[in-house]
Amino acid sequence: MAGIVPSNRRNSVFSTGFDDLYNALDDFFFNDNWRNNRISSIGSFKIDIQENDNEYVVEAKLPGVKKEEIGIDLDEGRLNISVAREENVNEEKKNYVYRETKHSSMNRSIYLENAKSDGVKAKLDNGVLYIKVPKQEKPNTSRRIEIE
């Protein structure tokens, strides 16, 4: 939808009484800045998936995340990448009026057809998680049917 341009209802000569609603909908559907900020605030991360003859290569963008905070599971072709973070600020000041501890979690799950669970390798390098998932050969289940 990023290529679609909404009509400019803000400068419309005709007022229908629903201008605020139309403007809110336009902002929701057509404003890339709002959409990008909203996605990052709900706890998600970007992934790229490449496929070749032997394996899948998954790249997850996780800047600032430590490897201890990442969980990777593969179950029947479903690759699940999760991140759980807890940020504690230890200050020696007393008499706090207000103090926060930040908890956040992110999760992405993707299906990789014919993924082999043995031999999966993962590496975190400069904020990018690289996961290599080998493929297993599909059994040939096709057969020719003879006509009687």
From TrEMBL:
A Pfam short name: HSP20
SHSP domain: residues covered: 38-148
Domain of life: Bacteria
Family that this chain belongs to: Belongs to the small heat shock protein (HSP20) family.
Name of the protein described by the UniProt record: Hsp20/alpha crystallin family protein
Organism of derivation: Paratissierella segnis
